[in-house]
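re: ur question from earlier - yeah i can do the single chain one, its not a big deal. heres the input i used so u can compare w yours
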Amino acid sequence: IYALLILFPILLTFVFSTQDCFQAYVRFILWNPAYVHAFVQSILIGLAGSCGTILVSVPAAYVFAKVPFRERELIFYLYIIVMLMPFSVTLLPQYMTARWFGIYDSLLSLILPGIFAPMAVFLLTQIMRAFPDMYIEAARLETDSTVYILLHIILPSIKGGVICAWAISFAELWNLVAEPKVLLQTIDKFPLSVLLSQVTIGD
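and the output i got, formated as tokens:
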């Protein structure tokens, strides 16, 4: 019931927008190709970055949570410090890195920082720390494969946290405004968030 209350305004908006049999959507697509192109760019950035985030964050979180090694907590605290930094502090290093790797003015300049964002690692580390070690020890009696244990024992139990981390990462990449303006030079490569931020009331 609570989910329906949250979704009701969205459903109501969609119903009102389709009273003319989707003519508004057809006109928008036909007469505003720049916005449609920017929408596709946003989808590519969001999906590539968020899926890459999960691929990187899951094994990193497992190491932080379940693999003891020296300076583990120090490195994890560094992750937290980077996560707490405002984007204005990290924007210049991102620009310099993009120039150095030769990915300036490409979608990779937005996707790669999103893949290695520390938020998902922090979130999944906290979730995996709550996962009982006894299950991992029991699985070790059957196999020595850490990958098998991670994929078949741990991930099915924390899939809710993984989905949450993916959704947060996708939302952050979808809402990028300042980063594309700094890391992209070609207007055709701007995501939808940048174009919408430039819309005025008169438009």
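The CA atoms of residues 35 and 196 lie 9 Å apart. not sure if urs matches, ping me
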